[in-house]
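[Discussion] Sanity-checking designs against the backbone

I'm trying to build intuition for which residues belong where. Below is a C-alpha cell string of 165 positions. I'd appreciate it if someone posts a full sequence so I can compare it with mine line by line.
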C-alpha cells in the first residue's frame, strides 16, 4: 500500500489522539471530513491502524517493577520458538516480547508488582521447561523515553518521495 502525505498526517494525528473528532482529524489532514473519514476507514481495513488505546501511568495505580529480560533458548527448532512464544503470549505481565537477531533469541518487557513477583514469574517459566537455556535480567530504574507515537513520516516514503527516486 502506498501512502501519501495526507495518509501520513492521518496516521500521525490518530496515534497522538485516538479520540480525535472527525472534524479535527480532517483539519489536521487537510481534507474535508467525509474523504478524511473514508481514508481513515481504508487504513483500518488494511490493518495499518490496528486499534485505539488509552495510555496508562501504572505507577499512579500501584508500585510496579519494570524489567527487561534477555532469553536464549537451548534449541533453535521452529517448534522450540513456537512453544516459547505461546507461553509468553499467555502471560499478562509480559507486556512485550521481541524475537531478535544477535546473541540472544528474545527480549521481553515485564511489568510485575515487585521484584519478588518477577522472580516467581521467571521460576514459573523455568518450571514449564520451555527450553530456556539462559536469561539475563535488567531492572528498569528510570524511564528516560518511552514513546507510543511512531515517527511514520520519517520511515514511510510518500508518493511524492517515491516519485523523486
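Best answer:
Here's mine. Compare freely.
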Amino acid at each position: 500500500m502506498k501512502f501519501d502525505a495526507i495518509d501520513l498526517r492521518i496516521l500521525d494525528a490518530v496515534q497522538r489522539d485516538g479520540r480525535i473528532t472527525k472534524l479535527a482529524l480532517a483539519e489536521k489532514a487537510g481534507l474535508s471530513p467525509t474523504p478524511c473519514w473514508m481514508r481513515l476507514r481504508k487504513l483500518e481495513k488494511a490493518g495499518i491502524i490496528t486499534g485505539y488505546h488509552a495510555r496508562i501511568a501504572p505507577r499512579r495505580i500501584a508500585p510496579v517493577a519494570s524489567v527487561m529480560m534477555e532469553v536464549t533458548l537451548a534449541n533453535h527448532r521452529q517448534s522450540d520458538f513456537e512453544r516459547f512464544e505461546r507461553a509468553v503470549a499467555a502471560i499478562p505481565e509480559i507486556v512485550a516480547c521481541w524475537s531478535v537477531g544477535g546473541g540472544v533469541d528474545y527480549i521481553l518487557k515485564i511489568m510485575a508488582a515487585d521484584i519478588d513477583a518477577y522472580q516467581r514469574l521467571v521460576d514459573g517459566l523455568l518450571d514449564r521447561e520451555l527450553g530456556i537455556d539462559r536469561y539475563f535480567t535488567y531492572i528498569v530504574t528510570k524511564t528516560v523515553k518511552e514513546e507510543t507515537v511512531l515517527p511514520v513520516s520519517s520511515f514511510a516514503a510518500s508518493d511524492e518521495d517515491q516519485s523523486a527516486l
